[in-house]
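Q: Okay, next protein. This is Site-2 protease family protein from Mesorhizobium captivum. I've checked the sequence twice, so it should be correct. Can you predict the 3D structure?
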Amino acid sequence: MTVPLGLRTVTVSRAIEADRKRLWQALWPFGQDAAWSDEILSAEPLDGEGTVLIKLSWEGRDGRPIERKARFDDVVEGSRFSMRVIEDTALDPSFWADYRETTELVCEGNATRVTLTQTDRYRGVAFLIFRYFAMRRELAKLQVWARTGTYRKGGWFEHPVSQIGFALLSAFILWPFFGLNPGGLALAAILTSVVALHELGHMAAFRLTGHRRARMIFIPLLGGIAIGGRPYDSRFEVAFVALMGAGFSAFLVPLLIAASGLAGSEGHRLAAVLLATLAGCASLFNIANLVPVWKFDGGQVLRQICPGPIALALASFLLLSALLALGWRAGFPPGFLLVAGAVFSVLSLITVGSGVKPRHELKPIHAFDRLAMAGALLAVFAIHGYGVLWASAQLM
């Protein structure tokens, strides 16, 4: 997912039953209908060479609209234009160094073929796929707007009903891996629930830190992802959101352990086993997310709270060692743990520095907040570590 792909061009095309001039007025930033999607709030020229300041409806880290400075060239009125982004108020200019997009409109009988092309340098296939589907969605929404005159926000993919359907689909996809029997189905459902609860913790943290439009996307088999409504504003916010994925489940694991013990004492053996399995899966999944790899939750927390590279390296080594020791204590084979440690170390080296750099440095984390997050990380680790050991003793 992080292999350098070099320069890649994504092209999406669709024939839309509308007049070319009307579509031009919608797609050209200075057109009369440029606000058709509520994305562009305003556009004003900065010079006579095609440089433009575009104000977008997307919310920046300060809560204000993101402003983007772009340059247009190869403009043919009513037919095509190309755009390069010089800088914006959200991301470092290096993010846009190789980016270029082109919009072309060609008449096809009573319709107009709209072709969108984006070229950029990609590190990993995930963002390339995201842009492809984002362009497809834009054309689909443009087609609806051309037919009805209204813009429909959102889409079927992130609709709550669709997300519930994806979660169910993921459970059924996992079912054969655990055995096509009631126990296998229960285990698949438990694992899917654990992923959903983890992402719900991230989403709750986004809400608590002022993100007004946080949402959760569930991807069958691959897991889920919580998305905030704006860029991060401070290092504390990054650490808090990252830790709350496992932190949310840390409140549930002791309750599940107590409920399992109560069910067992009352003679409800099946309920006790299911609750113990849920507690064990939640503990194992969440403590695995605390691995100090760059893109994992544990790595993100440590990068924000460690004051320098030496402290970060030491904390990462100690956390990884504690995770491997926990795995050994829980009964995992030593060979498996050595391989896992090597894989995590390589992943950390491969993904180091691969995050998107913001336009301005995040607000620093204060000493008290640093200590509070370090204590919370230790508490979350201890709770889930105990959950792993308790579940392995109960279920073995």
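A: Here is a summary of the prediction. The first helix runs from residue 20 to 27. DSSP finds ten helices and nine strands in the chain.
Q: Noted. On to the next one.
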